[in-house]
Amino acid sequence: MGTRIPSHQLSSGLYVSGRPEQQQKERQPTMASRAVPYTGGDIKKSGELGKMFNIPDIDPSMIKTSRTSSSSQHNSGSVRSGPNSGPISKHSGSGPIPKKLSGPMVPLQPTGLITSGPLGSGPLGSSSGGRRSASASASQMENSGSTGKAVYGSAVTSLSEEVKVGFRVSKAVVWVFLVVAAMGLLVGAFLMVAVKKAVILVSVAGVLVPILAVVFWNYFWGKRGLLGFVKRYPDAELRGAIDGQYVKVTGVVTCGSIPLESSYQRVPRCVYVSTELYEYKGWGGKSANPRHRCFSWGSRYSERYVADFYISDFQSGLRALVKVGYGAKVAPFVKPATVVDITKENRELSPSFLGWLADRKLSCDDRIMRLKEGYIKEGSTVSVTGVVRRHDNVLMIVPSAEPVSTGCQWSRCLLPTYVEGLILTCDDNQNADVIPV
Question: In 362-391, which positions are buried (b, 16+ CB within 10 angstroms) versus exposed (e)?
Fold first, then answer.
């Protein structure tokens, strides 16, 4: 039997004897894909995706080398990334060092709001944050109370005066009442002297005493009556609110374009901050202000700021812009907390408090002082009472142009109480119910 000669077919269709060349067998197809090694979730080994993050490609041979390296090489080859590098995975000792990125990606919060930084970024947070280096955070922690006074622009409203709460009565009614009371007292006094009868004088006094009692009652309890009225006022739903409607909205607040920071404690990302220094005046002591009376606390220095912020309605979930900047009238009712208390027994001033006084050019004599600070931090639950405005699909809440009246509260013997501006109320305990945003 003859031996069969091998043959093969050329690309032109002609059959020839012999085996095909070895080079044709090893030639790769034109459209075949290159074998990609298993990345294991490492973005530096994923080719084009790694280029999107400015991470160079790694040779497969380098991957094999890193897999076969000993554990001692892994421990000694770790590279410490910078504070702004934003590493996604650890880097071994072999291979090129990845470039630094702009910063870590902030995850989407449960509220759905995207803010400029995490809640813990700051001197009072659990961590110093990914945007500051360790040394900068440490120095800020040490000098948190001795930094200079913050200076804001016109976009931030400076509240120099206290909230004015009072009741209004027509001037005509006041003059008529004063004339009638004066005439009654004169006639009663004349009859008591001439006729020896005090019936008219007692009658006039019986009318004046209840009226004066009601006036004094409203003077001392007017503010509490206003807060009770605001608390009982029903919450409105922003989805159905019309333009020009006076509403009360309760929800979570987030900072606007200008976040505030408290003066002494350096609490970051606030929408309202206040710091007040009080002094106690005894018999013959120094007065903190011209209206300071003896045996009482008087305000010596105060600074309060508020800026535009957003509020997310609890009922509808909509977010509205609260316009309180650029000199708007605002009536904040936020109870401050005492952060520094200097008494006769405790006169040791902390370096941070001394620095705070020096920055504001305040003397630290032998006085009884008390420093109070209040703030509304981002994520706090607040109530805003104002007028709804809609402009180019933007929902806003602005202060009312006219003073707001509570009306007569007969059950509490309170006359109509008036207050000007947007009413801003907040719970006393802020640290307990702050929602991360």
Answer: eeeeeebbbbbbbbbbbbbbbbbbbbbbee
